[in-house]
Amino acid sequence: MRANRRRFAIALGGLLAGAATFGLRAVAQPSEQVIKVVARRFTFTPGTLTLRKGVPVVLELTTADVLMGFNAPDFQVRADIVPGQVARVRLVPDKVGTFTFLCDIFCGSGHETMGGTIVVA
Amino acid sequence: MRHPIDRREFLKLAGLGGVVFASGLGAARGATLSPGEGADDDFYFVQMSDTHWGFEGAPNPDAKGTLRKAVAAVNALSEQPDFIVFTGDLTHTTDDPKERRRRLAQFKEIVAELKTKNVRFMPGEHDASLDSGEAYREFFGDTHYTFDHKGVHFIALDNVSDPRAMIGEAQMQWLAADLERQPPDANIVVLTHRPLFDLYPQWDWATRDGTRAIELLMPHRNVTVFYGHIHQEHHRMTGHIAHHAAKGLMFPLPVAGSQPNRTPLPWDPAHPYRGLGFRDVESALRQAQFHLTELPVLEGVTS
Predict the structure, then answer these.
(1) Can you list the domains of chain B with their CATH numbers?
(2) What is the ipTM of this complex?
(3) Closest CB to A8 among B11, B93, B238
(4) Structural domain boundaries of chain A?
(5) Residue A109: is it exposed, middle or buried by C-beta count within 10 angstroms (0-12/13-18/19+)?
(6) What confidence tens digit (pLDDT) does each residue in A3-42 have?
(7) What is the CATH number of domain A21-120?
(8) What are the tens digits of pLDDT across the range B205-242?
(9) Inter-chain CB pairs, A–B, below 8 Å
(10) Which of B36, B203, B261 sits opposite A3 (nearest CB)?
(11) Residue B277 backbone zone (phi > 0: left; psi -120 to 50: alpha; other: beta)
């Protein structure tokens, strides 16, 4: 059996999809909507963010308990949410649809279900 | 979603239910061997992953028995591997430090039944992210390390003890220093838990600073990465570096983006243990290749 295993080769294809994520600290301009989002183990409130394409918003992120992360990979926006601090990220939706955001700092037994939805119309 | 592998290249092995292919490491990619041909320094190891000891739930009604079955299956292999690697998530996470240690102790006791005593461990985020790997180290030692085996340099990378899913600056410098000591044509295998590339960050299937690790590895011509975390077989190239994810041994997860959430695939009573398994990795250094065979949990077990 082992000899047979040596007979086969495969050429693999593909390139690194190097979509880096990053956090963007921001201060809201006077005309920009501010949405406050509170993280606590293991939910975000609100869990759904309803946005409009091309309309910038600033998310003000706080945590009610432990260190959390906010990550919206489809918009390359992320931030650490440190207890006692407000993390601000500016997000300009550049596409319509329904997208995921998640906590990307392992925060406990319910971490893997901690996320929400961004709806862009 | 486009599958990165040309499926026509796969060979289904009758009787095994597994899949074989070779991960080319160098200029001889695609070479073949005749039966009985082989170098003395050829060897094979087994990759086991994501055993999640302590998990309870509908996705695996045999949660307390699956790991033991997998151990029996490895022990039943006609030729025992040179060594076995566990690529993380040995235990299922718990917020209770005492319970975490209890699960680690039970896991260690069960895998002590493996015939092959050369066993290498590494943590997953379920084992290590809530206490920076403290409990894990009490049972299994360092979370990142290197070892050499028959001409292959193995590097175990920890991308889970930092709960931000990062390798971190200190370990990155350690990696850079280790790689500087390796010649450009060294055969290098990286063992880690999370994918080093952005497989699907929407489900946390990524390492935040993994791109930098890949950049450090790129000058070396013969690099293969084996990892876990995603509970399914997956293969991807980043340049000339092959990345192979292993099946888990507690519950399978869906294909990235195939459903709204990364909830485990349901247990199928008609096909128990489907989607679970371990991997036989055979090194054929003369051909600069690794040949992978995917094996089911019940491989070789008659009861």
Answers:
(1) 39-55+64-296 (3.60.21.10)
(2) 0.82
(3) B11
(4) 21-120
(5) middle
(6) 444 333 322 222 222 233 333 445 566 678 999 999 999 9
(7) 2.60.40.420
(8) 999 999 999 999 999 999 999 999 999 999 999 999 99
(9) 129
(10) B36
(11) left
